[in-house]
């Protein structure tokens, strides 16, 4: 289950003193719009570090960033400049947690500032902890959560450290998890939350069995591919009450309002339309099956974001129409379907009877669809050099447009229940 996002921010044009030791998942540039950025305490222009901090804050409150968080809290790295800048209070306290680095200089002034912000309901996380030090001891009373890199912390120290911190009521986050063994170690130690690229890679297993609901979804997809009648679709949907529940909710959502409450399955099918039912069914293939809300389901969110990105991106290319956009969406949605069904990706794609260009894109990254798929993978990994090379092949698509479409796709996946485009948020 998704519990939150860490926002990785780059400031590549910033001077050395303004670098925040951040990664490259989102790109915020130092730039214009600084007319309100005078330092109110000193009556002078802000320092370069303050300018970067305020540019980051402006980016964090942008609507697509907020929507892409799908209601989850965002963890952001901070430094002294950022904490002491009053602009930080533009961030809603309930949505953002401030991560404090292990090398932060701690003095009475910093403690007073943290206490002030804490009194305004801002929360703090001790970041990148490997073993206790003086900074850790001074900041511990004000931290809600402790993020420990279990791959770098001394193995002999971890059981005692986690036990003491849990006894103190701290939320423990295991960071740096890149493999199954790392996760199992952290889980065994009693960590509450887990973070790492291990969770961004769909896990496949040759022994995995497709659940009954997913079998029903697969049958429904195959039926939808053949332009079924309403009666045929109604009969197939009735075989799975969970699908009917989702469809009734979808048909009665604001995006599909027909002037009255939809009360029958046939009305729901007519109100929603087979195209939207197909998209909704494709995405539900990735739903966990444990009644996890759709916005909390990591695999579904990844599939929805990637599919929507593919659709948005191909619409920027010459001669792309509705058919090309549909093919792009399908390519994104099924690009890791082996994580759902197990077995080889090629055999699973054959079962789904996808077109040759879509299969070639997914299996071999061939054609325009394959290039777009490679581009979104580079975006997901923050591989900006690879993304720039792909954009050169996908002119007129630019790296800036790709970044913006990535945010827009994440926002669509998180709050598409507010639109008429097909993915419903289910509140369990």
TrEMBL record:
UniProt cross-references to Pfam families, sorted A to Z: HDOD (PF08668)
Residue intervals of the HDOD domain: 210-400
Chain residue ranges for the region called Disordered: 16-48
InterPro entries attached to this UniProt entry: dGMP_Pdiesterase_EAL/HD-GYP, EAL_sf, HDOD, RNase_Y/CdgJ
Composition bias type Basic and acidic residues, residue spans: 26-42
Protein origin, superkingdom: Bacteria
Signal peptide extent: none
Protein name: Putative signal transduction protein
């Amino acid at each position: 289950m998704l519990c939150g996002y860490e926002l990785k921010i780059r400031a590549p044009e910033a001077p050395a003193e303004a670098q925040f030791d951040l990664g490259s998942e989102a790109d915020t540039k130092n730039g214009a719009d600084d007319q309100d950025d005078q330092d109110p305490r000193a009556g002078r222009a802000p320092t370069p570090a303050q300018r970067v901090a305020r540019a980051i804050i402006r980016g964090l409150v942008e609507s697509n960033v907020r929507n892409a968080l799908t209601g989850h809290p965002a963890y952001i790295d901070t430094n002294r400049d950022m904490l002491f800048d009053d602009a930080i209070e533009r961030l809603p306290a309930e949505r953002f947690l401030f991560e404090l680095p292990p090398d932060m200089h701690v003095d009475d002034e910093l403690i007073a500032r943290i206490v002030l912000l804490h009194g305004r309901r801002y929360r703090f996380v001790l970041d990148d902890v490997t073993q206790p030090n003086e900074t850790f001891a001074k900041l511990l009373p004000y931290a809600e959560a402790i993020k420990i890199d279990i791959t770098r912390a001394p193995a002999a120290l971890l059981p005692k450290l986690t036990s003491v911190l849990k006894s103190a009521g701290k939320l423990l986050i295991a960071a740096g998890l890149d493999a199954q063994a790392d996760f199992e170690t952290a889980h065994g130690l009693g960590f509450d939350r887990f973070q790492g690229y291990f969770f961004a890679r769909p896990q496949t297993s040759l022994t995995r069995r497709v659940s009954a609901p997913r079998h029903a979804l697969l049958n429904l997809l195959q039926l939808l591919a053949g332009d079924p009648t309403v009666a045929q679709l109604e009969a197939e949907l009735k075989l799975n009450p969970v699908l009917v529940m989702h469809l009734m909710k979808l048909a009665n959502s604001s995006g599909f309002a027909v002037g009255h409450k939809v009360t029958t399955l046939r009305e729901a099918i007519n109100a929603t339309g087979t195209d939207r039912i197909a998209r909704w069914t494709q995405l539900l293939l990735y739903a966990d099956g444990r009644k996890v809300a759709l916005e909390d389901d990591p695999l579904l969110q990844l599939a929805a974001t990637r599919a929507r990105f593919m659709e948005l991106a191909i619409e920027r290319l010459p001669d792309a129409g509705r058919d090309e956009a549909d093919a792009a969406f399908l390519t994104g949605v099924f690009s890791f379907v082996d994580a759902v069904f197990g077995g080889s990706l090629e055999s699973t794609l054959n079962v789904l009877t996808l077109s040759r260009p879509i299969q070639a894109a997914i299996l071999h990254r061939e054609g325009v669809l394959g290039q777009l798929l490679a581009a979104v993978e580079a975006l997901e990994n923050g591989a900006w050099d690879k993304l720039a090379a792909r954009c050169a092949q996908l002119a007129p698509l630019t790296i800036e447009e790709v970044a913006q479409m990535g945010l827009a796709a994440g926002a669509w996946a998180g709050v598409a229940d507010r639109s008429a485009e097909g993915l419903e948020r289910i509140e369990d």
